[in-house]
Predict the 3D structure of the following.
Amino acid sequence: MHMNIAIDGPAGAGKSTIAKAVARELGYIYVDTGAMYRAMALYMIQQNIGEENWEAQAFTAESADITIRFIDGTQHVILNGQDVSDVIRTSEVSHMASVTSANPAIREKLVALQQKLAASESVVMDGRDIGTVVLPEAQVKIYLTASSAERARRRYKEMEEKGTLGSETLASIEEGIIERDYRDSHREHSPLRQAEDAVYLDSSDLTIEEVIARILSIISEKGEAL
Ligand code: DC
């Protein structure tokens, strides 16, 4: 059976770790839509396009060829032939992605790509507008969140382990998270919000394993009901 699972929520709620694990468990493809917005943002930075210049962004987006490739089950994001999967993870790109993802021309292009992927394969897709805009017919929708303090703590630990902290502190990371939350949920086009038929899950006091188990049981209940 073809099945699509939408996982939305704010930055740092653990969506990608959890969506990846759920996809692996089910044998579905995991699609990280944030990575697509990040690749587009990286392209805007490379082309020296200003944050406010929506027209130039729309024009420039036309020459951005963003594709997703799966290598050993892992998603790689290819921007104009180059694998940018790692370089899209900097704070600079995070910030630019949160700005440029408000641009409707950019959203239109990436939503079409996401819908095409989900039409041909069963996917677990994570993002901000998957349950509301990209896959409104998804059989299972999860809204995954956690407190900003907890999300900052997790991000800090992850960056510390990877050695990518640089000059960031726990406080600066939390500030960045709050700023992005605000922008993601207050933009005019496809703001971050819970779909009416999504299950709300707060992961602040849950382990990754507990969240994965919860989601798998929601999916199996849903699958039986279908
Ligand atoms: O999940 P992330 O941090 O990699 O997302 C990067 C940015 O892209 C974030 O500011 C929100 C935006 N985004 C979006 O607007 N819609 C999506 N479906 C996914 C991400």
Remarks:
- The chain has a mean pLDDT of 94.
- The first strand starts at residue 4 and ends at 8.
- Strands lie at 4-8, 29-32, 66-71, 74-79, 82-83, 123-127, 140-145, 199-202.
